[in-house]
């Protein structure tokens, strides 16, 4: 079967309007061929857009039979190039965006089953409509999809209380690389009947199979939320505040974000409507939130006790407490605007790393001077989820230095130094963005040979012909 025959077979399976190919459809194909950061741009034989799991399985089977490599894609909001085809023009992109149905909400079982192409925001809304909470939340929730969240094991702002995507998922429906469809959509908290296949596909970035639907956990909606921005002197002081908050609030502590002063200044500079939250600058800030299922009164009492103790111990220098939902959203908007402010400021060297929570301050104190020795005057854009040890440890060019020139000269040595420091602090070079093609080789460098060999065996066992998202996660 030649290319034209293959494409006609695709037309027959999913309908010609959903098989994008050729020069006359280059404009329609373009959004599927570049990653969100425009770091990678590939070519594709076609972009295929099946409507449901059965069509997806049929398309995958056809590709497997003709040894055509497949690149699964959701909202295409990934940050590591994991959903971008290579430049050969011989791969197909399988877009899951049309698989966008909420199949079932079981409020009594606190579960929801949705297809992989559902926007995360729509999953959240479906849960809310049923009087429940789906707590996975991140800045791209209006454009990222549930399948992509699971494929990269997304984290977000509520991991501290609810866990990341893997911990929120109970069951999956997956198309295997040969086109077989596995229905593992079980809404069970306990199922001890053999190997846990579900967890193998979560975080695998579509290299072992293609997720078409998932059953996820729901939670009671909180009766009250309390949000504050607290100023502290150092990351170590932020860690002390985290420990105190966990002592006082226990599992009610939902979010705990570390934000350097430079991040806040950057947002205020590029988005003047978002005002700097304090009367004077402070080296570090913490955005923290409690979610209480009892009452607003109970939440406020806990929050007041926490902040009074923090001030009495000299941990906190200043604080802004949200008095209503609008003010709470404004504080979170400050945090979520940091990546947008970075984009306005120009290209920078980005790192999505994690170390044990207890070592976050040590990591920053040890790594900042190393970066300055390599790239004097570099500006550190450090923020992230202190509650789970995940930092976005980003490096901007010095004031007045061209960003492209800075990246060409310093990206490789700075990244190597940062990753070496992460490794020395027993951390990981990718916490929530995945490996894709961006960090594929680096991950293999820092993993043990045993771990890499085990991953290769899994890949071969599930995808012996190497047709499912090749070139991602594992080096060729």
Write the layout of secondary structure elements.
Blueprint: H1 3-14, E1 19-20, H2 26-33, E2 46-48, H3 53-65, E3 70-73, E4 92-95, E5 102-106, E6 111-115, H4 120-129, E7 132-133, H5 146-151, H6 159-162, H7 165-168, E8 169-175, E9 181-184, H8 197-201, E10 210-217, E11 219-220, E12 224-232, H9 235-249, E13 253-260, H10 261-270, E14 284-292, H11 296-312, E15 318-321, H12 325-336, H13 338-345, E16 352-354, H14 360-374, E17 379-385, E18 390-396, H15 403-424, H16 440-446, H17 449-462
Helix pairs in contact: 1-3, 9-11, 10-13, 14-15
InterPro entries: FAD-bd_oxidored_4_C (IPR004113), FAD-bd_PCMH (IPR016166), FAD-bd_PCMH-like_sf (IPR036318), FAD-bd_PCMH_sub1 (IPR016167), FAD-bd_PCMH_sub2 (IPR016169), FAD-linked_Oxase-like_C (IPR016164), FAD-oxidored/transferase_4 (IPR051264), Oxid_FAD_bind_N (IPR006094)
Family: Belongs to the FAD-binding oxidoreductase/transferase type 4 family.
Protein name: Hydroxyacid dehydrogenase
